[in-house]
Target: Eukaryotic translation elongation factor 1 epsilon-1
Amino acid sequence: MGTYWHLGARKHLREVPVMQNNNAPPLVGLVTIACHLVKEAKRPELLGDGAEGRAVVQQWLEYRVTKLDSHAKEDIKSILKVKSQIQEKPFDISTF
Model:
């Protein structure tokens, strides 16, 4: 691992992780690589137990890639802190 492909227009250039696996084609993308490594380690529980658990893990991985990748590390820490605080509090949606 450690190889990155640069995808997107110059303005929106982002690095995409690539993992070369022996003679197999390279694996491209964080989620693809994470899922492959979990399967290689024979630790399927890391991807969630049951349909609901797998959906939650997949949702988090997609959130990470689509929402957090465009932010600086310092900003990501703040975003995750606020997100966890919001998740812990009940909201009455009738007040919105």
The chain has three helices and three strands. Helices lie at 30-40, 50-68, 73-87. The first helix runs from residue 30 to 40. Residues 3-89 form one domain.
